[in-house]
Design goal:
Elements (H helix, E strand, L loop, with lengths): L2 E5 H6 L3 H8 L5 E3 L5 E3 L2 H9 L1 H7 L3 E7 L4 E16 L5 H7 L4 E3 L4 E14 L11 H19 L3 E7 L2 H9 L3 E7 L6 E8 L1
Parallel strand pairs: 7-8
Antiparallel strand pairs: 1-4, 2-3, 4-5, 5-7, 6-7, 8-10, 9-10
Length: 202
C-alpha cells in the first residue's frame, strides 16, 4: 500500500473536479454483516463527502483531503480540516491540559474559559467500500491526518486540534486512544444529537 493525500481544493483549482467526483463516488460507510446485509456506520460522514465537500472547498470554509492507495487508485478514507476560534471551559480539564492551554490562549477569569485559535478535524472516515474498511485502520488514517496538520502548522503555526463526535462508546475509545481529551459537549441544533468535544495538541 502506497498512500497519497490529495487536497480537494488544489484539485479543483487545477480543474480536476471530475476526478474529485469519481473518488467521492467510491466512498461508502456501509459495513457488511455476515448474513449479507449492510448497515451504515455514519451516514453524516458519507453525506458530507458526497454533497458538501466540493462546495465547502470552493468557499474556503473547510478543505477535504482524500487518502488514496496509489497502487490501485482506491479511496481509503478522507478527513476535512478547518481553522476556527474555540472556547474551552477550564472546569473538567486536567491540570496538564490547562497548563498547556495557558501558553497560547486567552483566559477569561470571570468565565474561567480559554479562547484559542484551533484546527478543527471536521470530518474523518474510512471507506468501507474498499475491503469493508480493512485496508487502512482508523489509527493509520489519524496518523495521516495529523501529518497533514503538522504540514499546515509549519506554514502558519497553531498547536491545538479539536473535534466533535457522537456519544458512542466505540468512538470514545478510539479518540481517547488517539490522545484526545474530553473538554465539553454540545447539543446539535440540526439533528438534536449530543456530541462530545475532544481536543489534542499537534
Amino acid at each position: 500500500m502506497i498512500i497519497s493525500v490529495m487536497n480537494v481544493r488544489d484539485m479543483l483549482i487545477d480543474s480536476h473536479e471530475d476526478i474529485v467526483k469519481s473518488y467521492i463516488e467510491m466512498f461508502s460507510c456501509e459495513k457488511h454483516r455476515d448474513d449479507g446485509t449492510a448497515r451504515s456506520l455514519n451516514p453524516d460522514i458519507e453525506h458530507f463527502l458526497h454533497y458538501n465537500a466540493i462546495q465547502f472547498a470552493k468557499m474556503k470554509t473547510a478543505v477535504t483531503y482524500l487518502v488514496i492507495d496509489l497502487e490501485d487508485g482506491a479511496l481509503l478514507g478522507y478527513f476535512t480540516l478547518a481553522h476556527k476560534p474555540l472556547c474551552v471551559t477550564a472546569d473538567g480539564l486536567s491540570r496538564k491540559v490547562r497548563d498547556q492551554l495557558k501558553w497560547f490562549s486567552k483566559l477569561d477569569e470571570s468565565e474561567q474559559s480559554y479562547t484559542v485559535s484551533a484546527f478543527l478535524l471536521a470530518q474523518f472516515g474510512k471507506n468501507y467500500g474498499v475491503e469493508d474498511g480493512k485496508r487502512i485502520t482508523g489509527a493509520e488514517l489519524m496518523a495521516v491526518a495529523m501529518e497533514q496538520l503538522r504540514n499546515v502548522q509549519n506554514q502558519i503555526g497553531g498547536t491545538l486540534v479539536y473535534l466533535d463526535c457522537e456519544a458512542n462508546a466505540g468512538l470514545i475509545r478510539f479518540y481517547e486512544g488517539q490522545n484526545f481529551s474530553l473538554f465539553g459537549e454540545r447539543l446539535s441544533e440540526n439533528d438534536g444529537k449530543r456530541y462530545l468535544q475532544y481536543l489534542s495538541f499537534v
